[in-house]
Each structure stands twice: as structure tokens, then as C-alpha cells.
Amino acid sequence: MEAVVDRLLVLGVLNLYDFFRFAVNFTYAEAYGAVLATIPEIVVPMMARSVNVGHTPGVLEGDAFLYRCQMVLVGLHQDWIRGISLGMDGYDEVETCCVAIFPLHDFLVNENSFIYGGEGGFLREAHMLHMRVLADQDWQSPGNFALLRSMDCATAVRLVVSSQIWLNDDEFYYLYVGLFMVFDWRVLISDNGFTVFEFFLERIVE
């Protein structure tokens, strides 16, 4: 019964359509604030679950999200901007969720294997210029270090991928594709001469 309730709550929070429909200049922050103000007793505990390792209760593989703030509200992901969520596994800071949205930086091998490009390097700006990165990536950045710790600790990572990468879809939305394990990584030099990290993820068969 608890799983059913979680699922209903997620489905209720996922639909932010009404918050955007009636205000031309309604921002993500205002929609986010409206949800928090309307049902804080539900949303705040859900958001706190983003630091947990494993599936987010109520969120199923294949669930789609139009906005990153929706993923934050349901506790799937932790941050509006960064692609990496951090959490704790015992005393180790590990990765709990990766969001992959840049086709020049993140690569689908098949539905069970994914190459996640590292954090840093001004990815959004690089993508707009059809480049991979615009600066060196660093293993000491919080996200890259957490991914390395996730590999060392063998913890599960939730993977969210844009529809453009996962389905080769022209329309952009976020797709939760399941739990993966970081099993390897490497450092390479991009075509424009900067250091890039790649993390190799394999699906966890449950």
C-alpha cells in the first residue's frame, strides 16, 4: 500500500501544467514555489529522498519529466542546475543520480550500457558551440569524485537521460531509465584539447 501511495503522490506532483498554463511569465522558480506552498507536508519529505541510494519511491523506470524542478520535487534528483546528485553511503559521499542531456558528451551504448561524461568544463556553453567541453575537467570536483566513490563502494546510481539521447527524439524531455553501476572510468583529451572524464555505467539487473 505504501508503494501505491508513493506512486499517486508522484503522479500528482509531476503535473505542473496548471502552474504554467495560466501565467505567461511564470518561471520554474514560481511553479516550484507554488507546489511547495500548496502541499509542503508532502513535497518536503519527498525532496529529501534525493540523497538516498537506489530507486526513488513512486518513480518508475520510463517516467518522463518536462522540467528538472519536477525531478527535484519528487526526490529523484537533487539540483536544478548540476547533473549530479550527492548522497551518503555510510561515511562515503557517493553519487545518487546522474542527469545526462548533452549528446556531444554523454553516449548511449545500448539500453544496458551508458557512457556518462564528467562534470565541469562549461558543458552547456560547449554544447551550444558544438564542442564537448571548453575547459579541463577535474577529478576533485564534487560530482566526479562522488562517481569515483560510487564505483569504489559499488553503490547504485539512478540514471536520467534526455529523450534526444535515449530515444533519438526531436522533442526534449527527461526520462528515468533505471539503476546503473559505475564499473570503470577513463581520462581522455577532447578534440579541442581539454581533459575529459568518462564514466562507464552498466544497468543493475534486479
Automatic annotation (TrEMBL):
Keywords, alphabetical: Methyltransferase, Nucleus, Transferase
GO terms, biological process: methylation
Subcellular location field: Chromosome, Centromere; Nucleus
Family matches, as Pfam families: SAD_SRA
Domain YDG: residue ranges: 54-203
Single GO MF annotation: histone methyltransferase activity
Chief location of this protein within or outside the cell: nucleus
Chain segments annotated as coiled-coil in the UniProt record: none
Signal sequence coordinates: none
InterPro entries (UniProt xref): H3K9_HMTase_SUVAR3-9, PUA-like_sf, SRA-YDG_sf, SRA_YDG
Highest taxon of the lineage: Eukaryota
Any one of the GO CC terms: chromosome, centromeric region
PANTHER family: HISTONE-LYSINE N-METHYLTRANSFERASE SETMAR, HISTONE-LYSINE N-METHYLTRANSFERASE, H3 LYSINE-9 SPECIFIC SUVH4
Name listed for the protein in its UniProt record: Histone-lysine N-methyltransferase H3 lysine-9 specific SUVH6-like protein
Organism of origin: Trifolium pratense
